[in-house]
Design a protein that fits this description.
Elements (H helix, E strand, L loop, with lengths): L3 H18 L2 H8 L3 E6 L2 E5 L3 H21 L8 E5 L39 H12 L8 E4 L6 H15 L5 E5 H13 L3 H9 L3 E5 L8 H15 L4 E6 L11 H7 L3 E4 L5 H14 L7 H9 L5 H18 L5 H7 L1 H9 L5 H12 L3 H4 L6 H17 L4 H8 L3 H17 L1 H16 L1
Parallel strand pairs: 2-3, 4-7, 4-8, 5-6, 6-7
Antiparallel strand pairs: 1-2
Helix pairs in contact: 1-3, 3-7, 4-5, 6-7, 10-11, 10-12, 15-17, 15-20, 17-18, 17-19, 18-19
Length: 446
Amino acid sequence: MAEKAQLQYAWEKIDKKIQELVPFVAYTTCLKDLQPVDIYNRKIVLKANTEMAANTIMDYHSDKLQEAILKCNLGDSIVGFCIVVDGSSVFTLDMQEDAFSVFQPSPIRKEFTFDSFVAGNGNKFVYEAAKAVAENPGNVFNPLFIYGESGLGKTHLMHAIANQIAENYPEKKVLYTTCENFLNEFIDSLSQRNSARFRMHYRGVDVLMIDDVQFLKDKKSTQEELFHTFNELSSQNKQIVLTSDKHPREIATLEERLRTRFEGGMIVDVQPPDLETKIAILKRKALDRKCHITDNEVLEFLAQGTDHNVRTLEGHLTKVIFASKLHEEPITLDLAKRALNQSVRETEEKEEITPDKIIDAVCGYYKQKREDVLGKGKKAEVALARQVCAYLMCELLTLPLISIGKLLRRDHTTIMYARDKIEELLKLNAKLAKDVDDIKNIVWKE
């Protein structure tokens, strides 16, 4: 049970703020009779007289009540509220969810740091801007808007900023998410009537980082929500970092008021790496895999034989390293050419690949039933097959995560987790890497 003095102090502040936020009639008829009885799970427990009163508050005034709590700046001790009613089977503490159980931030990848980022001629400026933000969040470039083509390191820089802030300012709350995740959680909050909790989740942070905001196009309600979140955070000098594949003025159907907010800070673009930078990236990635490539011809061949996408560059390097281990041969120009021969075939035949081909190939290879892989089974062999399906769909198809999730009957965050997990395992598990290559060959031959 919370101390009575602490409880009363908190409620007096909240009650005063509520009266500023809601009409007088609404306050006197619905909210005035609420009584604070405890602080539970970082929420103030408020007792209503009847279930009808509790339902009315939850349906019509929960947003303002939550807003009042946030604006009182009560710290981590109180971050939300719950309503209880004596004798009710619905409005009880047992029915209350954890304050942060609904919305979860995307994980920060610890390996993506400024030290592991190769800064070349095309990205030195954006690299320095990102470092400046990480060293002095909220006071240098706010917002920081990074744009450029896919696979040039925007997400790496986002995670690097988050990791650096976490190290330098452990007291600050950093939230990294994708635009797709922001959109889906906003839609869920509307359908589940917990928009107040959604706002608390995104506005109660010191640093908000949203990846791929170009997906905001045509999403009017989500744009409005982000606009208000943006204003709330920037008014308190909270740091905002955004990425996109386009400049704000090139994002179709982006509201003008949001566009001007994006353009109000620092806008920097990531340029494609030149040949020297690509070679430096290859050397760094090879060292990360404990592989030292001394043959400059191999590095130049890999650098010249790929587009500007760093992920493609890394993928080709992975194939060559794997081929070297598989055939027990040193990495030479001849080995590299042989290893990448199927990459050419992959590019030529990529458009013929369908989701069904991938699912059938994976199920056949691992001898699993299609309905099990697409079902809820949690056996290790079924889960592995499902995760490999997710990884291959992400790699071989040009589909958004949400679409892949629908095909595999999973949400997009599960697909993202599966993709990243298999991607990491491929670097460590030679057998899995061979399995995945074999499955790709099956897909191409079908």
